[in-house]
Amino acid sequence: MAMTLRGLDVSSAGAVALSFERLIQSVDPLIGGAEDLPLLAPGFIDLQVNGFAGVDYNSPETPHEEIARSIRVLFSTGVTRFFPTVITGEPGQMLGALRNLARARASLKEGGAMEGFHVEGPHISPEDGPRGAHPRQWVRPPDLEEFKRWQEAAEGAVRLVTLAPEWPGAPRYIEALVDQGVVVSIGHTQATSAQIQDAVRAGATMSTHLGNGAHAVLPRHPNYIWDQLAEDRLAAGFIADGIHLPPSFLKVAIRAKGVERSILVTDAVMPAGCQPGRFTIGGVEIELHPDNRVTLAGLDRLAGSALRMDRGIENLRKLAGLSLVEALAMATRNPARLGRVSSRQRGLSPGERADIVEFRHDPQTGAIEILRTFFEGELVYSKN
After folding, report:
1. Catalytic residue of the set 46, 227, 267, 310
2. Which of 67, 170, 154 minimizes the C-alpha distance to 119?
3. DSSP state of 111
């Protein structure tokens, strides 16, 4: 049975009646006052989630019930689709994590929210700085046979791969993945200008959390951050938590890429949504601090984030000076287009999947309050 929501479509600023089942059926204008109507937007899409609400997506042993619980918490932040992200690790552990996620995706009621999987590494720079918090001992060169094993374990759900393009043979590896419909993103790299250009010509289309996973000090120019910012064929993900990137860089980087080539990612890890303390992820001990920083335990080295997507949208407004429409585009249509998420690229339009967020927005403070979240037409979160 079709359901109808009445609210303000943020993208058009018009009052609408939105009718839907699994797909949006109609979007009709409302006549009359709209002062008390909530705002409506497509559900948020996060292409980089390593874990959430105390649940680690990188562990082969994570119970499916815990994965389901973490997805329900993600629904409360407005996220309706995301890419669980498996990072650099021992080969068997990475396969086990992908296999566990694939089985959860197939069996859980909430599993469809895991739109696809993102493998971040292990084909990244082994050097301190670009490597970030990834364990050095498991960094290794691109291997198409290993990718095939990932895809078999993931039941074909690997949709995004991050790698450093300076490895020998990287362009051929990129071409092979792109031929199979996989999005390739540049990240955790110290590549030269020529190596970045080779990767783009081979089919790389994104930069992973640009501005992070880099040396603390770089040559003024050229350097691999400038090169990626200047390359119009690369879109870029940004972690807008106020910790990973200063406002000045975030503003300039989004201006360079243009909002249309920019996406909001959380890079959230297991402690996101938890109380401060120490946690173990893939044998690596990390710490969530009271100021919401996540670091390697005992070190001042960032190890993912504790960001929520709704807070990230708020931060894009406060830190980068974006409008609400622009910030929402970076959390909805842009990741759908760049991550090739079907039937989610035209906003609140007939025929699109009925992933919908109903929320309120305080124009004075910029605060967002999620009221209800719908996933494929089903109510999956309600504040009341």
Report:
1. 267
2. 154
3. G
Is there a domain that residue 14 lies in? no
What is d(CA 317, CA 264) in angstroms, rounded to the nearest whole number? Answer: 12
| Alpha carbon distance 322, 255 (integer Å) | 10
pLDDT given for residue 274 in this prediction: 95
- Reported as a single tens digit per residue, the pLDDT across 323-350 is 999 999 999 999 999 999 999 999 999 9
In a domain, 180, yes or no: yes
Amino acid symbol at 319: L
Q: Is the pLDDT of residue 243 over 70?
A: yes
Cα dihedral 111, 259, 53, 244, rounded to 10, equals 140
Task: Report how many domains make up the chain.
Answer: 1
**DSSP string spanning 33-67?**
--TTPPEEEEPEEEEEESEETTEETT-TT--HHHH
**Taking Cα atoms as reference points, which of 285, 310, 309 lies closest to residue 295?**
285
Q: Return the CATH number at 199.
A: 3.20.20.140
Amino acid at 37: L
In DSSP terms, 46 is beta-bridged to: 82
Least confident of 248-252, 294-298, 345-349: 294-298
Number of H helices, E strands in the chain: 10, 21
- The Cα–Cα gap between 19 and 154 comes to 35
Cβ atoms within 10 Å, residue 382: 13
Residue 26 resides in a domain: no
The closest of 89, 199, 181 to 135, measured between CA atoms, is 89
The one-letter code for the residue type at 247 is P
What does the pLDDT look like over 28-61, one tens digit per residue? 999 876 678 999 999 999 999 999 999 999 999 9
Q: Is the pTM for the entire model greater than 0.90?
A: yes
Structural domain including 186 reads 44-341
Q: Is 143 a catalytic residue?
A: no
Within a domain: 30:
no
Contact criterion met (CB below 8 Å) for 74 and 113: yes
